[in-house]
Amino acid sequence: MFGPDAKSIKPIETPMKLELYRSRFRAALQSKPVRQRNQVFARSGGNFICVVLLVLYFVGRQDANAQSWGPPVIIVYGQAYIFSGGDPGYNLGPCDNYYAPNGDSLQIDENYNVYEDGFYVTHYNWGSWTFDNPSFVASPDGRYLYGVPAGLTVVTNYQTSSVYCNGYIYPSYNYFYSGSNGTFYVAKYPNFPTDVLFQIDSSPYYIYNSPGQELVIDESGGTWPAPNLQSTPPQTVYVFDSGDSTSAAYSLQSISTSSGEGWISEQDNYYTTVTGANQQVNIQRYFNNGSFSGSISGYSDQNHYFSGSFDPIAQQVSAITPGNIEVSLSTLGKGNPQGPLYISWDDTLLLYQATDSSGNDYYSDSSGQSTVVINNGSATSGNNPAQGQISGSYNTSTSTFSISDPDFFALDSSGNPIGLPPGLTLLFGSGGRGQQMMGNDGTIYTPNYSYRRPDGSWGWKYTNAPNGNPLPSGIFLVLDEHGIYTAPPYAYTAGNEVVENAISGWPPTNLYPQQLYVNGIPCPLVPSSEYDSGAGLPRSGGASYYSPNYALTVVLSWTWDATNNFQAFVTGKYGQSSGFKGNWDGLSSFTNLTNGAIVSLTPLPTAPNDGNPPQVAVNGSALTFNSGATAALTAAGTPGDVYTGSLGQTLTINANGTVSFVPAGGGAAITGTYNATTHAFDFSNSGSGSGNVVTLGSGSNATNLAITATDSSGHPLAANGGPTTGTNGSLDIQGNSLTLGSWLLGSESLYGLALTYADAPTGSPSQLGLSTTRSALNWMWAHPSTDGGTDSIVSMQLDSLHRLLLYDPNPANQAAPTVIVDPVNGVSSVVPVRVLPAGDINMGTFTAGPQPGQ
Asked: What is the distance between the alpha carbons of residues 664 and 648, in angstroms, rounded to a whole number?
């Protein structure tokens, strides 16, 4: 393999440690006089100095002792001074002696003073392995130089002339050394450029790819080492052809290379044991002026030719053509993929091809240009001509991808998208139709997704409006390949998934429901009655419904033109009697209906929606569920439950929990809310009530009405949804009080009603009290019209103004009290007041004015 991880030539390791030398240093050093010399190393160094180090085994000039104060080797002006031990005879006292090939010598004494042939030249800093004179460089072995940055070292048996980097000559050496016998030369190149191809004279090509480490190219034995540009190539290539049960293995048999200035090419040849002709695979690996590339080609075990790309750095195969052949460096086979069966990518269908032994799933299109791999662990990578390389992840639970390209998604076994937003999908046999829709308000829509399906058909999916919001409910006309709205109208309800299959032609409209209900009467669709005026605008259509049991005929009709867009209507007639009419939204809403008609798509409800009470009581008077009025609300597109009472009261609990109460006799509605969990009404924000009480009128004419959720028998529903506590036997309370209800005064909870008993001694009256914690209260006495009835006939009321109100027992006359006994304004009655003969009635004293009337 090419690249930075090639290891056929290893950088040298860090040389011998400083501590090895320190152990030989003397503990105490004595200062010595320094003798000077008139001329010190009068040799030319030049602005740039080619450094080639002679690694010299200096026979006959060394003794068995290691150096005590200096390094093993000292490099000075092109000469390598090798430690040889012994006393050179310059009367310097104890010292380390070094000799160069030309006979010159250096000495380092116990004070680390450095002498040339006995004359002082510089000082050695043993702790840092440096000299005061920068022309002196310490070395442990003649190759590694202390204080010089790591780089390239070249060892040859001749003086190196040129080092070429990517076709140009590397500009300079830093040091150059030679030995007296001229046999070995070492060239040093600190900070050598990385990841570039270089050649030393006519050597093979190498690459320096280990920054901070020393790379040694040693030709001193007369042979250049092998190029380090490649390491061991893949040993086996696996090829899976469609129809195979498992992949065929191709083993590496031979390698051939060629090179030139700045480039090198390698061909790895693989063969399989499967019998047949041309059973060979070749991997080409290239390096050219700093860039790596590769290719792969060959024949499958079914003798089908294929080709593709090979990444010599990542050792990854991609873009194999044809797409029914998969190539990998691990075994391949058909199985149950962790990924989907199909992937759609930029209108290209990718099919599952194979799974390798590592659990990676491979996908490609029919041409092999677009490829995807779902790695074991759900990481996803892919390549196609339009988008290039992509990466992301795959969720095996939801069968969805997390990839930046929105046109990359999974398809199920039928070729339908997985994980896309809900919307309207149109399927066609070619890619021309369905690329535009018109909504019932004239808005123009374009597809948000398009894809190819396994059967060769196309899919266009609309999920959003032009403003980015989800596709709204409505009626849509689809444009054909000629730019004409020839399709029948199609209905769509927001949030649903609707698929219209037009592969074999436009499917029938889904506009007309199979059955309507008029005031609860089912009216099925007459199939042969559907009509459509045809393509283009203006346009019209409709369908009929008929109920033979009631001789009821209903017609749904619509028109569509450029001015008014889509408009739809409903009309109906009972036999020869009067009919009704209204508007239709094309979906499920029917409004402005005449003659009390209720048109809906579902039967009349028999009970309220879940969470709403079976019945409601107003001051004990029952309001029962009204299925017809409830159906009318639903048909008008404003669903809710309606309750009506015998006195004409109406209460509506809307789907969002808001409440509207219209009292007997009509008037403005009083609004509030209903909590389905606590079964509590609240009119506190209406301006006409507090808690579950609404107030009609004002001042002395004010009337309070308590509105309570009850079960179907009129029993109040307990708060928080709990059951009502009851007992079948007697209830004996030993205490003297019984409280009912509760309300909040600020943050304090108070009871609503208290029944108390106060005992008194014999001879004094005891007291039974009935009191409330509310300052305004109406006391109501009522009974049903029949035993067990759910209606409420008021007998008497003692209102909050201390008036006694008596009501007519006839339910039809309960709208207002018959007799009012008012302690402030007197007694009034709407019926005659008769006094039996029993003596005079004191009428007061006449003091002035005419005679009172009789």
From this structure: 5
- Asked if 664 and 645 touch (Cβ cutoff 8 Å), the reply is yes
Residues 6+ apart with CB under 8 A from 279: 250, 271, 272, 299, 301, 303
8 Å CB contact between 378 and 396: yes
User: Which residue is listed with tokens 């008077």?
Assistant: 621
Could you count the other beta carbons within 10 Å of the beta carbon of residue 226?
A: 12
pLDDT digits (tens, 9 = 90+) for 169-222: 775 555 555 544 445 677 888 888 877 778 888 787 788 877 888 888 888 778
Residue with tokens 């909590």: 675
3-state secondary structure of 446: coil
DSSP string covering 377-437: TSEEEEEETTTEEEEEEEETTTTEEE-S-TTEEEE-TTS-EESPPS-EEEEESSSSS-S-E
Burial state string for 368-388 with b = 16 or more CB within 10 A and e = fewer than 16: bbbbbbbbeebebbbbbeebe
CA–CA gap between residue 514 and residue 524 (Å, rounded): 6
Q: Quote the CA–CA distance of 831 and 808 in Å, as a whole number.
A: 10
Decide if 447 contacts 477 (C-beta within 8 A): no
Nearest in space to 830 (alpha carbons), one of 812, 813, 843: 813
- Paired residues of 710 in beta bridges: 615, 716
* pLDDT, tens digit (0-9, with 9 covering 90-100), for 416-439: 999 999 999 999 988 788 899 999
As beta bridge partners, residue 97 has 107
| C-beta of residue 142 within 8 angstroms of C-beta of residue 55 | yes
**Taking a C-beta distance cutoff of 8 angstroms, is the pair 53, 216 a contact?**
no
Where are the strands (E) in 325-387, listed by range?
325-328, 332-333, 342-345, 348-356, 361-364, 371-374, 379-384
Is residue 787 very low, low, confident or very high in pLDDT (cuts 50, 70, 90)?
Answer: confident
pTM, full prediction: 0.52
